[in-house]
Amino acid sequence: MRAVVFEEFGGPEVLTVSDVPEPQAGAGQVRIKVHAAGVNPMDWKIRRGYLVGFMDVAFPATPGVEVAGVVDQAGEGADFAVGDEVVGWAATGSYAEYAVAGNVTRKPAGVSWEQAVGLPVAGETSQRVLDLLGVKSGETILIHGAAGAVGSVAVQLAVAAGLTVIGTASVGNHEFVRSLGATPVEYGDGLVDRVRAAAPQGVDAAFDTAGKGGLKESIELIGGPERIATIADFGAAELGVAVSTGADPDPVQVRAGLDAQLAAAAEGKLTVRVAETFGLAGAGKAQDISEDGHAQGKLIVQP
Questions:
Q1: Cβ atoms 258, 266 nearer than 8 A
Q2: Are the C-beta atoms of residues 303 and 18 closer than 8 Å to each other?
Q3: pLDDT tens-place string over residues 184-229
Q4: From CA 241, how far away is CA 63, in angstroms rounded?
Q5: pTM above 0.90, yes or no
């Protein structure tokens, strides 16, 4: 099968498309004919070698943890059968024609492959951090990077939970952020004053999805770091801000959350904004855009 591989750490130029053996489904697993693979910051961080010591990489390696497609092989004890349309987390790299997965769920007929594959990571991450912050209906939350793949899902989950949401985004994305139910504000100098004007009632918590600054301003707005969390700024600990990485999540709980989010998407209550799709040969460009940090929604690789 054709797959994106890299045989050394480095920039996007180390990614190539090669013919590799098809993976085989083990017990409790399925092999999926890939229709869409999600691109996430973890993918290029692994490729650059930034996670050495945290995650083992065996070369040649294929990137990708999010997968959506059709089951074409079911291992003993698997919950799904050949022909089922599924989405979830790949055990082998998903930037490929086929991927093996163990933790997947059924894709609703009314949700596209692209919409579906945008939810496993963004949905789990968003709900995990909202739970970590202990937010509740009636409170106000500041979400940094509100137009991004994770930020836009976090905004919608927060609004659905009864929160007032202030979202930082570039001016060009303000209408999109507003359409999700949040009040958009521009990031950068003067952020504190703009947030105070948008939320005169005050801000109770903050969620940084972008890692582009704003933590010091969030601390000033909230009065301390206790109810602030980031998934992207790994220098945050110096400010007393929690960094949430999602290590060893409960697979049953994660799958239940994805089921609920897919159902909401099928009902038109949850939107996944697709920024751009790429073929396998465009995987390097997709990761480069992700690393640049200005993708306006979900980046997707399709074999």
A1: no
A2: no
A3: 999 999 999 999 999 999 999 999 998 888 999 999 999 999 999 9
A4: 30
A5: yes
